[in-house]
Amino acid sequence: MNFQKPFIDRPGVLDDTAGDPQGYVTNDGMWAAVPIIGCKAFAIINNGSVVHEARNYTSAKNYILKEMKKSKKK
After folding, report:
1. Which of 28, 21, 40, 33 is nearest to 64 (CA)?
2. 11-56 pLDDT, tens per residue?
């Protein structure tokens, strides 16, 4: 069988490398921070719904990590 990779016009959105200004995705895929078109803010997505908006990449990543720690404590 020949499996083809899907075409993604902005592949940086799906990268989970730290410091990537195009977005952040956790290893389990439950949390993501994607840039909002037209401004420098990031939308934070959890389970497919936008839960928060952050002003920059570092604050978006910090918010995600903080929320992941909260959910692990429960």
Report:
1. 33
2. 665 655 544 567 889 988 899 999 888 788 899 999 999 999 999 8
Q: What are the structure tokens assigned to 53, written together?
A: 């908006």
Residues in the chain: 74
For residues 14 and 23, the answer to whether their CB atoms sit within 8 Å is yes
Amino acid at 18: A
The pTM of the full predicted model, rounded to 2 decimals, is: 0.69
Contact 24, 11 (CB under 8 A): no
37: its two tokens:
């078109």
Rounded-to-10 torsion of CA 36, 70, 62, 11: -50
Residues 6+ apart with CB under 8 A from 54: 33, 41, 42, 44, 60, 63
